[in-house]
Amino acid sequence: MRGARDQLVTPMRVVSIGIILSVVLVAVAFISLSMGPAEVSMGTILGWCAGMGSVDQTTSMILADIRLPRILLAGLVGFTLSLGGVVFQALLRNPLAEPFILGVSSGAAIGAIGGIVLGLGFSVGVPMLSFISALATILLVIGISSRHGGLESSTLLLTGVIVNAFFTAVIMFFIATASDSRLHSMLFWLYGDLSQSKYIQFSVCLPLVLIVSGVIYFFSRHLNLIVGGEEPALQMGVEVEIVKWIAFIGISLVTGVVVAFSGIIGFVGLIVPHLMRMMLGPDHRLLIPASALGGAIFLVAADTVARMIISPSELPVGVITAFLGAPFFIYLLKKRGSRWNQD
Amino acid sequence: MESGLILKSISFSYSNHWNLDGISFGIQKGEIVGMIGPNGSGKSTLLRIMDGLIRADTGEVLLMNRPISSYRRHEIAKQIAMVPQESIFRFNFSVLEVVLMGRFAHRGLFPFEEKEDLEIARESMLRTGTLDLARRSIHELSGGEKQRVLIARALTQKAQFILLDEPTSQLDIRHKVEIFELILSLVQAQGFGVMVVSHDISLAAQYCNRMLLLNKGRMHRIGSPAEVVTTDTIREVYQCPVLVDKNPITQTPRVTVLAKRTAADIAI
Amino acid sequence: MMEARFRCHFSRRFFFLILIALLCCPLQARAATFLDSMGRRVVLSAVPERIVSLAPSITEIIYFLGLGDKLVGVTRFSYFPEQAKEKEKVGTYTDINLEKVVTLDPDLVIATADGNKREDVEMLEEAGIPVYVVNPRMVGQILETIQAVGDICGITSSARERVGLLRQRVARVEEAVLGRGKPLVLLVINVKPLMSVNRSTTHHDIIELAGGRNLAEDQPITYPRLSLEEIIRRRPEVIIISSMEKGGEHERARREWFRWTAIPAVRNGRVHIISSDLIDRAAPRVIEGLEEMAKLIHPEIPWQ
Prior knowledge:
Chain A is mainly α. Chain A has helices at 11-33, 42-50, 57-91, 104-118, 125-145, 153-176, 180-190, 199-218, 220-226, 230-235, 240-262, 268-280, 284-308, 317-336, and strands spanning 146-147, 150-151. Chain A is globular.
């Protein structure tokens, strides 16, 4: 798609793309707000937002307590997963990397499933156990992979893959021995479930996401260099090890937090950064905010489909992202062969 | 001797391999030192030790009289620039973006380039003949073009010492000469100190002030090109039949590699 | 003299024939063929003395009929009644350990079409073990199943008595709710995701018999996952959460509903919990479940 590049990334470009994507995000959020088993017109929504017009209590409650928190959380989760995808793809210099690749997904899943088996509540107990478990997994993987204070990317990758595989076997065990009533909850969690989202979940995740995003953005230049090789980056002045430690831990942490509430939603961290890189180029100063916002848009849209497509029944959102993601990847592969270089 | 890049008694061991041992020399500003030696004699490793990327087992590397380990990476980057043999770019940055990466150490907190950076990049690309490649994607370039871009990138670092790892390996003869000319002009005009690793012994001999012949991790010979490049030393170290004579035009050592048959004929 | 010898031979032969016929008779009289709920012919050579149950519901039925002593093997989640816990385990009902069943040397295995695998049933038959498959869905079918099990175990009349008592209880409920309005009922069988039941389930039948209307009856999926919005839109008058006793999670789930005051059930404080054992299993306790449900759906009736 890009043979020649027209312009360098300037603050102006970052801001303008950022604004465009934000506008799209708000628009998608509004459309999502208007969709659901209970019909609510766009006009009503606009009126409701402006605080004008008479909106009956039921509709108001549906918008405020059911749809809006869910949209907010979907946006935040999409934002975070996409951010994680960009960063890991840069650090591991591997276009197939996702934030789950270090074991966050299976680690979180074991905690969540354990919580479900123990009968903990979905508001506090399950997310908490999920997060703690994710954290422990990250520490385990990093602990195994670090040598002399350095994090070797290939070791991290391998360890993450092995940990994921092992934990998945454990999860399979739980599923095989689960009683019916638990099974549904487990399966839904494993494919991502944003139903019954609450504002408190959003407010708990938001500060951490903002902080980590800020820190990561600060390292966007560093990531540009690391992508060309860790040694050249070192030669040019990047403190590669520090960047790696902060980025791996920060992203894994923040991914663990959002996944604790939403379950495992795959493909977002894989597709959106790819798409954005194809459209806007590999410079992380633009790619990071674009991917994050793109991820938010993507997940809000996917979640809307998840709850509308077999309405009034719902699908897990991970099913939708997989349905969208897998064909996209096949398309990419066919178009470009296995030459990932030609992004 | 104070303002140089100096190695003292460096040794470094790989597992199962011979070691780098007893390496002591220095590069001064304003000179070109050529490092030659067979494949696997430790040249690339030595370059990396000089840049502080690898920590030697014994000995020390001094940059401006301070051990290199006492510097932060971005400080080193402003003093030493390195041109690797090759670079793999997984994502399609443009040539200009790649060249601008060399400015990393000079950027403060503000993450975007300023006019000065663009000027410096432009100048570097002009000198390496890569200006017209500026908007092309790095993937589209030939091996030789890529090498020149990497050199341009190193130039933007505005470092005093430049280490080049086989910068001409992929270039045709015209571009080989151009690169060496470029290095020479940088040294003469701006007083850089340069170390070049090369397999083009004859060409390097025309440009280098001093040469260092490395063999199995040890310094076999160091001195002027005429001292270092002789039939005996080259034959012994490279283990192949050669004839080294003096180039009648340049008066510098000229290495001719002989076909085995010829060598047998003249009983070398 | 010739005639006398001839008469002697004839009567000896005749005597042996009669003897053999008499001996064969009892065997033929005891062997019985039954038709199970899947139309399969099950041949039992005698009244079963060693029975293996392949589902917790079947275990309950066997105890209810007073045949607990004849039970030699049950599945893992057979917790009711207490005595069942001591019986030998043959696996879970989706994953039977066929070897174990064969080792127990049963003369009758009772399986359910809803859960047990057809291959398992076929393998047991090949091993020469008679397998009787039940498939009760609606409450009426459950009662018939209990009777059928009593029949094949040779206690037809005592089974009829017991089942009769159950039928009376059902009739009492039906009578009491007759003519009254049918409140809209949401039965929640899973909290996250929110799941209910459609009309092909036992639960649905119970709700209907108890004088209610199942909110999710028209859903195409058997256990549909409903969105909260849809529930608010439909305004159920009673919400019943089916719970297993573990943890306080369902009490918590009950309180979670209190936010949605737009739902009549919530406004009028009609969010209740029912033990899932009473309505999940196609077993005699389903009648208890029915009575519970009826009390929750029609609290205005003066139940005894």
